[in-house]
Design goal:
9 helices; elongated; 174 residues; mainly alpha
Length: 174
């Protein structure tokens, strides 16, 4: 829960804070990150940090939300309740990985997948239980492919090709 005081800082100061958070969380997993490095890089006091954020995980979740807002495009809601269309899942995975691999958030997202997502509480329940088996499978395969691409970006196209074959195979499951 980002504290209201963060909304009161100047744009210049907010940019310094965001840059310091990105530098820290792109270099270290959350369990190795340090407020000391963040405040030094942002040129703010330790006390100021705690007027903006409840704690280090709060600052992390704030930054991660900023990154996801900038780069993530969720599947259209209608595609999750309509007939299964593998091309939508493939296009979404392709678009997302194309953006992230060339983004300033690449290392942040990579560390998130490798280390941080398992230690953070889930903000809201995943829609997986409301999906039919085909849509759930496609979503699971898409996320696994995104993870593979983040770990080995040079093999992006091979992973997307494999995803296309897997998604298409789900069409024949009637």
């Amino acid at each position: 829960m980002v504290l209201a005081n963060l909304s009161k800082v100047t744009d210049t100061k907010l940019q310094r804070i965001n840059s310091a958070l990105l530098k820290e969380f792109s270099s270290y997993p959350l369990n190795q990150a340090q407020v000391a490095r963040i405040v030094k890089s942002a040129d703010i006091s330790r006390g100021s940090f705690y007027t903006y954020f409840k704690d280090l995980p709060d600052a992390y979740q704030y930054l991660y939300h900023q990154a996801m807002t900038a780069i993530h495009q969720p599947l259209p809601t209608a595609s999750l309740t309509s007939n299964y269309q593998p091309e939508i899942y493939l296009q979404t995975a392709s678009d997302f990985t194309g953006k992230i691999v060339n983004s300033r958030y690449y290392n942040l997202i990579k560390l998130h997948i490798l280390y941080n997502e398992v230690i953070l509480p889930q903000a809201k329940p995943a829609p997986a239980l409301t999906l039919d088996a085909r849509h759930w499978s496609a979503m699971t395969l898409s996320h696994a492919t995104i993870r593979d691409i983040l770990l080995q970006p040079a093999k992006r196209q091979a992973f997307l090709d494999r995803l296309a074959i897997a998604l298409t195979s789900l069409v024949d499951q009637d």
